[in-house]
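Note to self: keep these together.
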Amino acid sequence: MDKEVRLWGNKRYHSLNYHLREKFGQKVLKISLDAGFTCPNRDGTLSTEGCYFCSARGSGDFAGDRRLSLEEQFVQVKRLMHKKWSRGLYIAYFQAFTNTYAPVPRLRQLYRQALGQPGVVGLAIATRPDCLPGEVLDLLAEINQHTYLWVELGLQSVHQKTCRLLNLHYDYEIFCQALNKLQERNIETCAHIILGLPGEDREEMLLTGRTVASLPIQGLKIHLLHLMRGTPLVKLYEENKLTFLSKEEYVDLVVRILEYMPPGVVIHRLTGDSPRDLLVGPQWSLKKWEVLNSIDRELVERDTWQGRLSK
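Structure:
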């Protein structure tokens, strides 16, 4: 590709904020919801322990209160968002647990309910790659005909040993099968990966990033492993089998992965965060904006950008 610096607004990567502003002409806010789902890795179908990094709230620690209706949650989260942004359109984000793990009539009811909230222009649905049976895929394809939709699909790592260690009960092959089925239906898909997983060295983490860059995805979330109290990973940490990345190591990994990521892939997230009272470490992850600013600075200092090394 052209060796001139590629910019998306003022960023050297294709941010979700830039993408949504280009598509809708204004700020679009994600309203994180907890629709009361569970997970086959929690309810005994596969396991009762869950994925070992996942919190008690099913990675929905900043979502609405599941004791409230979707409408009440929407209002609750929207008020919080408007403390920072005075106005905007909305993406209803089904975040907590596995948001395709229910009978189709129930899913249709919940998705329509969310789409019916004032100002909602689309849906984001987070799920596992092994929870997309044909009838659910057909429902998603139907919704995709009428509104903006993306599906967030957890991969975490391409390495089989890591998948087993984390108790995922799926692997890279299963992820690719699910991704292909979504792509056959033209459903935008955002892959999730985690950097800093136990047992993985720098080259293994980079291999996950480069491998994902070769897949037909439309979006990517890069998460930092942040260890939370009450998760099974705490035991590994106490046994000295888990060490945290430094901020400098993490920033380097993110920049190198971005270089291989095709320019058209939308970057939904470049770090993860955790409730302060649950976080074991790394403590530097609490300063989210410092991490993001460090990534921006590193891209400038290296004079590089998303896709510079992509094929």
